[in-house]
Specification:
single chain; 85 residues; mainly alpha; 81% helix
């Protein structure tokens, strides 16, 4: 996924918006680091596409607000088995 940084940032943003994906899952899907995803979306994207940045920021803010819940669910599953929700 090397090449045009602007194109990569747009593709990452669209993937996250369409799938309500996390930074971690987007990084894994595109084969790049979480740091690169974060830098592309928070620093590079607003420079050339503010509208797309605002949309992806909304999804990322939702993910950030919910991460403690997902972490608690993961911990519960780890200690009680995969059938606990």
């Amino acid at each position: 996924m090397k090449g045009n940084i602007e194109e990569r940032a747009c593709q990452l943003a669209l993937y996250i918006i369409e799938n309500k994906a996390t930074v971690r899952s987007a990084a894994q899907r595109f084969g790049i680091s979480k740091s690169t995803v974060h830098k592309d979306l928070s620093e590079r994207l607003p420079a050339f596409n503010k509208l797309l940045y605002q949309q992806v920021k909304h999804v990322l803010d939702e993910n950030k607000a919910e991460r403690h819940i997902r972490g608690g669910i993961a911990t519960r599953r780890k200690y009680k088995g995969s059938d606990a929700e």
